[in-house]
């Protein structure tokens, strides 16, 4: 099948996946093997040990590469395993420029794990290109970008940031977890590496943990593959099978996520109890025009702040019933959380506040339930908070 000849809805179902040659099975088999028979010492049929490669994982890697419009995909046991592998490409003394409102786990691995190995990090407002340019050094080897960002939903100009990175011979890596390849394909905008937490929208059902990297450059892929095998943060075949099941329905799920998030954002934006809504689909979002040009739709994530106290926000997230108070995102069910106490607790409070991530910020992963039930649920939670 020529994946390049088909649109993404078709690639999601078919790319990297052919009926099994032996049995004709339509769904990708789960190759639950740790090792493989060799025809002679060192002569194998493409697989020798499942940390190095597994047929089910290969199908998923090919599928994800096709969705992102890339040549090479590599899968990992978690999104953090994928991010760790990008950092493995660096050496002591190298410098990284990253957004000042990145995911808390990303901030943690940068500062609490890799700084002690003599990597240096600057966190800046990546929507401010002068700030990014000002942070670049001769030793900068990586510009790390989220777009939309987690949890403030800032939209970054991938073309511009990739150009700045390349001016300094640095790599530009984009975490595309929130947008997914259905809405945004960073390689088309000059990025060198695309990162995903497969746990989120690509898996889509809150039942698997995984990560992925997609690139176009063969040498870069070989370097990533070396660390993938050497470090061993690889997913099992059943996890890969679950993500492959998820990617088949990605387009239809994302359409519903986007429709619901847009409607909920507009409702919140008009609500008297809500001070601010962060969603790139709103026309007053500061990067709405960029999002309209760079993305095919605006995604299923949003954040908001109540016109009230930290305690009121905590009450809201505790009182919802359709929205489940939980970390993570991208499943079919709606989730709600307070980043300052949950997903971004690893970031020092003064840094969070400087980046605009307040204690009372509420983040919502808008699921595919009926929109009227979501609004009613939030309304009763607001009522409880404001009693």
From TrEMBL:
Q: Where is this region: Disordered?
A: 1-57
The record's Gene Ontology cellular component field reads:
cytoplasm
Reading the lineage from the top rank, the first entry is: Archaea
Q: Where is the composition biased (Basic and acidic residues)?
A: 1-12
Q: Which Gene3D superfamilies match?
A: Aspartate Aminotransferase, domain 1, Type I PLP-dependent aspartate aminotransferase-like (Major domain)
UniProtKB keywords: Lyase, Pyridoxal phosphate
This entry's Gene Ontology molecular function terms read: cystathionine gamma-lyase activity; cystathionine gamma-synthase activity; pyridoxal phosphate binding
Give the matching SUPFAM superfamilies.
Answer: PLP-dependent transferases
Q: Please cite one Gene Ontology biological process associated with this protein.
A: transsulfuration
Kindly list the cofactors needed: pyridoxal 5'-phosphate
Q: Which residues cross the membrane?
A: none
Q: Which residues form a coiled coil?
A: none
Q: Which PANTHER family match?
A: CYSTATHIONINE GAMMA-LYASE, TRANS-SULFURATION ENZYME FAMILY MEMBER
Q: Which family does it belong to?
A: Belongs to the trans-sulfuration enzymes family.
Protein name (database record): Cystathionine beta-lyase/cystathionine gamma-synthase
User: What species does this protein belong to?
Assistant: Halogranum rubrum
């Amino acid at each position: 099948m020529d994946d390049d000849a088909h649109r993404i809805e078709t690639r999601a179902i078919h790319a990297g996946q052919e009926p099994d040659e032996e049995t004709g099975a339509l769904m990708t088999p789960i190759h639950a093997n740790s090792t493989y028979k060799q025809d002679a010492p060192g002569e194998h049929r493409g697989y020798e040990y499942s940390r190095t490669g597994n047929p089910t994982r290969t199908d998923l890697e090919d599928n994800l590469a096709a969705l992102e419009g890339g040549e090479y995909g590599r899968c990992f046991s978690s999104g953090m395993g994928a991010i760790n592998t990008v950092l493995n490409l660096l050496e002591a003394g190298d410098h990284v420029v990253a957004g000042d409102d990145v995911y808390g786990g990303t901030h943690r691995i940068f500062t609490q794990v890799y700084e002690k190995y003599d990597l240096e990090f600057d966190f800046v407002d990546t929507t401010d290109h002068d700030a990014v340019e000002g942070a670049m050094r001769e030793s900068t080897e990586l510009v790390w970008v989220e777009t939309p960002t987690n949890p403030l939903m800032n939209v970054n100009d991938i073309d511009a940031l990739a150009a700045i990175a390349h001016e300094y011979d640095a790599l530009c890596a984009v975490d595309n977890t929130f947008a997914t390849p259905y809405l945004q394909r960073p390689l088309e905008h000059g990025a060198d590496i695309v990162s995903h937490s497969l746990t989120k929208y690509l898996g889509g059902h809150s039942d698997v943990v995984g990560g992925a990297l997609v690139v176009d450059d063969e040498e870069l892929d070989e370097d990533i593959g070396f660390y993938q095998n050497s470090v061993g943060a690889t997913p099992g075949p059943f996890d890969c099978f679950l993500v492959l099941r998820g990617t088949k329905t990605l387009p239809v799920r994302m359409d519903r996520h986007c429709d619901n998030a847009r409607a909920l954002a507009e409702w919140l934006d008009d609500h008297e109890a809500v001070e601010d809504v962060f969603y790139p689909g709103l026309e007053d979002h500061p990067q709405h025009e960029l999002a309209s040009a760079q993305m095919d739709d605006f995604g299923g994530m949003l954040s908001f702040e109540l016109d009230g106290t930290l305690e009121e926000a905590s009450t809201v997230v505790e009182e919802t019933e359709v929205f489940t108070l939980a970390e993570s995102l991208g499943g079919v069910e709606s989730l709600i959380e307070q980043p300052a106490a949950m997903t971004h607790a690893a970031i020092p409070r003064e840094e969070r506040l400087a980046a605009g991530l307040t204690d009372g910020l509420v983040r919502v992963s808008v699921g595919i339930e009926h929109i009227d039930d979501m609004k009613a649920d939030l309304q009763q939670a607001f009522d409880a908070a404001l009693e």
